[in-house]
Write a structure and sequence with these properties.
- Residues 1-46, 368-401 are annotated as: Disordered.
- Keywords: Membrane, Transmembrane, Transmembrane helix.
- Residues 1-16, 23-37 have a biased composition (Basic and acidic residues).
- It is a single chain.
- The protein is mainly α and 401 residues long.
- It has 11 helices and 8 strands.
- The chain is elongated.
Length: 401
Amino acid sequence: MDFFRKSTEKIMKKDEPEEDPEVIAKRKQIEREKDLPPESQTPTVSADHFVDEPAAILALKKMLAYDGKYGFPGTDGSRLANYKQHVLNTHPLVSIFYAHDEHPFDHWERAQYLFCMLSITFMISAVLTNSQKISRDDCDTGLERTPPLSPSEVQQACDTADNWKIVGPIIAAMVTIPTDMVLKAFMVCGWVQGWSIQETCESIGGYCMKIQMCYAVFFLIVGFVMAAQGGDFGGVCVTFLFAQVESWVLFFIKSFVLFNLFFNGAKSSFRKKYPGLVSIETAGLKRSGSTGVDLTLPSPGLLGGGPKVVSHTVQPPASTQQVNLQIPGEQIMVICPEGATPGQQIQFQTPSGALLMAVIPDGVNPGQQFPVLTGPPQAQVPKASPPQGGGLLDMRNFKKK
């Protein structure tokens, strides 16, 4: 019997028209995101801007945390404008003053990070300089020392000093690159942006940063002690300065190559994810892109303990001015909650305390959208008119009456 049943199902499926691949992909995306918190879901984008500010800020934080190449605020989509913002947000020194305020790697953390890298570079410069049997000072004072150096030893000191001016800083700069990458990765925690473990990982990163600061102070002290004992403090300082300059030159070379290598891919991915946008803008979003009305939606907590507060901003119709949610005549789209049936009423409460009612119309199944005309004392469902635009309210967790 199972064989005949499966055969019949296969024949029926062959007769059904194939779905559009884009529709299938969209449905799979919704299924993946339905159990995630709203701040982790794909932000809703209108024709030329994000629907609500939290979604835009989350998208911006993710882009900055991953050293994004396209979509920086204030850019026009050009390669030069995005590269300028990329450098301002990633350079170890410049980013302390010019990085975006929404970057997960804030200005104070960048200052600590720079101090750590300078301390490590100074200690490595001291170790490499003291490893030389003859210092660069012997080139100038070799014959005046007590006991004096032989002419061959003085010549060797001069040759070593000239070579070390080039080789030493390069070695010091190259040694610090892996440390630089690992330290920054743990401080930014870019891979957890928008997830429930974000705060935990950032707290762990904060404690690791405090430990690293202690190590940095220790490295700095060791570097000064080794430079003083080696008798070539000037040579250590010269190696350190050259190493730091060379590391920043290498940064520009590395960032320029990687930026141009991945720019087109980042641009294509950004425009596919956010059609119609060339940048992620957050300034003044509530004034120009939404009503500014936050709906507090009661829903079960993550562990079933208490209410979980979810904020959502409703997008007004493009052809009208900003409207209040309680003014009659505004249409919004709602999603039928799980377990609800046609004719059933659902209610929710606005931050001002007003209760709004919605009646599920006939033919609407759980998870489907339907338009609601809001207005006191209770919302009514229009029968024929299509939705006039507006944000999507996920009412799957609303209180059912």
